[in-house]
Amino acid sequence: MPESWATFGVDLHLDTDPGAGRRAGLERALRDAIRSGRLAPHTRLPSTRALAADLGLSRGTVTAAFDQLVAEGYLAAVRGSGTTVSEMARRSGGPASGAGARGAAAPAGPEPRHNLMPGLPDVSRFPVAEWSRASRRALEGARAAIFTYGHPAGCSELRTELADYLGRARGVLAAPGQIVITSGYVQALALITRVLRARGAAAMAMEDPNHGFHRDVVRRGGLDVLPLPVDERGARADVLARARGDGVGAVVVTPAHQYPTGATLHPARRHELAAWAQATGGLIIEDDYDGEFRYDRQPVGAMQGMAPGHVVYVGSASKALAPGLRLGWMVLPDHLVGPVTEEKEHDDFHTGVLGQIAFAEFIAGHGYDKHIRAARLRYRRRRDLLISRLGAVRGIAAGLHVLIELPAGGPGEQDVLAAAEQHGVALETLGPHWHRPGRHPQGLLVGFAAATERAYPVAVEALVRVLRATRR
């Protein structure tokens, strides 16, 4: 078979100018592509034979154009390795600094020297080898159908494994058919919000304080947000009883480990919430974002097991493994499976299947349990170190962060943030988590999981210096 555009392994799009002559037009098109950054340094070009066939030119014309651009420094030709874009473009400061350069269109901010942001796992400890083995096993034994479009609710392999895992590890009552796989927690919240809105709900109650972005998701989905105060016993269920006329169709809670205060929902309040849902037909959305990570006792089981017909249980792999996987799941009451699956289908059709089957195999081979246990031990040591250097913190011994309350007469959140920035310490404050501005308790959210093992002790000492500097 002759070499052509259809068979050659490197595609190259060039806009040549017919009026400039064949060779001159090709040279100009290549120069423009390199100068604009569309062809980055070290990009391999097609062979002269393949490019000539693609453009309808003689091979001699293409060879002459390549030779001219090699002489000008735009291209580099190495015997046996073909022709590539030379390093000259990078040295010239043109294409590498323009919007067309790879990675330059959306520049990221510099990594903090000391990463103590809450809600992030140590992604440097992602189990690459175990995940690769699970992926290989899953692909080798997979049916061909996994490479086509999947079911909106998710692949059966993952839903089956999750039903087993959630039952034994989190106390969730679930059949595979009640599970819908999502691209993380945020999509799950958005889907259920839209379903509730379509069913006539006007508002959703959410803990106060809570994650501000999650409030935005609910409002964007068409529902108002009712603040649900939180104290040392967790969310105050009694507020819901007084909100019967507000059209509240659901409440979002974090029972195992309230974010951001660190409280756990008291058993009496769990029963109050369940009674509210049963009496009103309302829905409890249980965000079990880091429920596996409890350090002083066995993790508290999910609330879903108390009232499975009235609770939507939501979890994800973001805290336990890595947010980049974009894998989340909902365990739904039977009457919501159809509407939520239909909403998912119209949202993004389905979550990527290859990641799902790899995760299913990872769970089935007990790699997930092993990783959770190792991470739990590692994060417990980190939390212990943080408390030994800072003293008392608010909240139970759980999760990936602690809340440090700031004294009423001491430095404010913005003072600490300014000092932290000077010392290269990245953390969050409690302020943005309140539903409305006002006179609220102030505090710092300090994550103890995001930094690497080696960097973490150094980050803690940097935080100690920040706090000392602001308390003078």
Kindly describe this structure.
The protein is globular. The chain contains 15 helices and 15 strands. It has helices at about 20-35, 50-55, 60-70, 90, 130-140, 155-170, 185-200, 210-220, 240, 265-280, 335-350, 355-365, 365-390, 415-420, 455-470; strands at about 75-80, 80-85, 115, 180, 205-210, 225-230, 235, 250-255, 285, 310-315, 330, 400-405, 425, 430, 445. Residues about 1-5 and about 90-105 have low confidence and may be disordered. It has about 475 residues and is α/β, with parallel strands linked by helices. Helix 1 (about 20-35) packs across helix 3 (about 60-70) and helix 7 (about 185-200) runs parallel beside helix 8 (about 210-220). The chain has three domains: about 20-95, Winged helix-like DNA-binding domain superfamily/Winged helix DNA-binding domain (Arc Repressor Mutant, subunit A), CATH 1.10.10; about 125-370, Type I PLP-dependent aspartate aminotransferase-like (Major domain) (Aspartate Aminotransferase, domain 2, 3-Layer(aba) Sandwich), CATH 3.40.640; about 370-470, Aspartate Aminotransferase, domain 1 (Alpha-Beta Complex), CATH 3.90.1150.10. The protein has an eight-stranded mixed β-sheet, with helices on both faces.
